[in-house]
């Protein structure tokens, strides 16, 4: 595996593979790779000729006071893990190359981004949309692979690629979990032992609410109450949101219809750590 540090070199490499008729897959990450990321790389490796894993901690998607400076980083470990999982290139641009002093462009997707994460992290999705555009323009992939844990982000990226007529397929892969159900996340390293044990409540709440829905409950307020009640059974949790919505557009009708795909979304603070998770339920 080779490390590429400049956009220009990455574009030249992508152009050469495209001329040869090779299929390029892109796996965008912010590094500190875990089994969730590696499953995306492995999928890309199995379905393409060339895999480019991007590693860039994007300052535009962190609000003031968030953990940009403290975000965990381990480049040597990331290199070894990505290589073993089948990545051919690790694209690691520097911030000045991505955002020059003259940079003035912001990519904004409306509608799908106004609630949930968009409400609690203003500007976050603009940063995501902007950086993903730039990464796609550098890597020039035929398809890109994302994890379902960042569910609203996947809807944003699908909307953006469709609206801007990008000739890139977006593949969303299942969330990888620990044995006790906690979703794999780079931020899990922030949790103390006690907090790590308490964090299992996210998956327990999702599964308990899923059972309520599969037993016939369709009223959104009742579903939301169940989700919140289970979460609040654990002390020390501050909930940003815990809510059900239609999976493909995040609409929130009073009652869900049979046949709908419903996503249960959670974001909460446990100590100093913010955790998110979700589960899709087919009614």
Task: Summarize the structure in words.
By secondary structure, this protein is α/β, with parallel strands linked by helices. A 6-stranded parallel beta sheet has the order 1-4-3-2-5-6, sandwiched between helices. It has a 3-stranded antiparallel beta sheet with strand order 7-8-9, covered by helices on one side. The chain has 10 helices and 9 strands. It folds into 2 domains: about 1-175, Rossmann fold (3-Layer(aba) Sandwich), CATH 3.40.50; about 185-280, Pantoate-beta-alanine ligase, C-terminal domain (Pantoate--beta-alanine Ligase, Chain: A,domain 2), CATH 3.30.1300.10. The radius of gyration is 19 Å and the shape is globular. The mean pLDDT is about 95. Strand 3 (about 50-55), helix 3 and strand 4 form a beta-alpha-beta unit. Helix 6 crosses helix 7 (about 150-165) and helix 9 packs antiparallel against helix 10 (about 220-230). It has helices spanning about 5-20, 35-45, 75-85, 95-100, 115-120, 125-140, 150-165, 195-200, 200-215, 220-230; strands at about 1-5, 25-30, 50-55, 90, 145, 170-175, 235-245, 260-270, 275-280. The N and C termini lie far apart (about 45 Å).
